[in-house]
Amino acid sequence: MIKDLTISVDDNIAALGSCSAGSKMLENFKPLFTATAIERLIECGVKIGEKSDVSEFGLGFNPPCKYDTRISVDANAEPRITAYRDGKICYKPSYGVISRYGIVSTVASSETISISGSNLDIITSLAEIMSGPDPRDGTLTGKKLSFTKDSNIKGKRIAVIAEHFETKKYIKLLNNAMSDFRTAVAFVEKISVPEVKVVQAVYLTMIGAEVCNNLSKYDGVKYGYRSPNAKTLEEIYIMSRSEAFGLGAKAYILLGSEILSKENYEKYYVKALKIRRLLKNKFDEIYKNFDAVLLPIDGDELSSLLGQPSIVINGVQLMANNFEDNKLINIARGLIV
Questions:
Q1: Angle between helix 120-130 and helix 36-43 axes, rounded to 10 deg
Q2: For residue 133, is it within any domain?
Q3: Is residue 237 part of a domain?
Q4: What is the radius of gyration, based on Cα positions, of the chain?
Q5: Nearest alpha carbon to residue 59 among 8, 7, 12
Q6: Per residue in 263-300, pLDDT tens?
Q7: What confidence tens digit (pLDDT) does each residue in 220-256 have?
Q8: Cα(148)–Cα(151) distance, rounded to whole angstroms?
Q9: Measured between alpha carbons, how far is 197 from 193 in angstroms, rounded to an integer?
Q10: What gap in Å lies between CA 171 and CA 177, rounded to an integer?
């Protein structure tokens, strides 16, 4: 199934001597190594058919790719939204099980490699291969993914967050998924989690701060685009960054600079970290009674914020507790028609 499989790899992952991250800042950057995750796939006979185009630093919507199976960096749910747009499945593993070595980092506390495609078995096989320890990534837990195929979800308990039904565009898809689960004799229950109303604000605060910090290294001195018109060191910094970064990257840099300023650091960034901890504690309690949580796709960065595994399938998203990836995948099989 895997040997000789040809896939697309997004161009913010080092492979095939290319890694532009969709930015003028890195348009001529040639990495001297291959990302650990991709290296492991190549060793197992997987072929890299193309480096697929991405939005600048993968922070916006990515264009379609040539091949069915795609490896992406999931920092802000974008690959999951892209998969939904293209009618595919997208699986984002738990944070800390697949090496981030060799990716263009933007949101280090939540980004992870994700896999999208039409075949769930291929997706899980690739995830197994890519997972595991890597001494070059200090954020790894050392856990290796392992999947046992079981489509029987009878008796599984699925939570649905009542607050998501306040947005009309989600209602039909969530109701359809709830019906499919009940047909498979799973237990589905609506629960109230008012804290989810602040998820987007919290995540925007954190992503702004982290993107600002991670993009600060692109200064036109060590590597990356250097303005041909710059004459002094100060001009190299200012003109290189002004000419190379797009509007999206500049907006995140400005947002992050404001959030991380002396006046706002405690007020916004530290508060966001505290709320993330409160959300983690809240969902720890939820998982004591439920196996998974049913979520909408767009506008919900909960999985990224908590570092929990999620999968987009049949127009909805499922999320499970940290490192319960096998359980999540098997529950998702209940939605495969």
A1: 110
A2: yes
A3: no
A4: 20
A5: 12
A6: 999 999 999 999 999 999 999 999 999 999 999 987 56
A7: 998 889 999 999 999 999 999 999 999 999 999 999 9
A8: 10
A9: 8
A10: 10
CB atoms within 10 A of CB 56: 23
Contact 126, 306 (CB under 8 A): no
User: For the chain, what is the domain count?
Assistant: 1
337 pLDDT band, cuts 50/70/90, is low
CATH number at residue 28: 3.90.1300.10
Helix axes 325-332, 120-130, angle to 10 degrees: 170
Give the range of the structural domain holding residue 31, as residue numbers without chain letter: 6-150
- Give the global pTM: 0.95
- Give the strand pairing for 112-117 and 70-74: antiparallel
Residue 106 lies in a domain: yes
Write out 21-62 in H/E/C secondary structure.
CCCHHHCCCCCCCCCHHHHHHHHCCCEEEEEECCCHHHCCCC
Residue 223 in domain: no
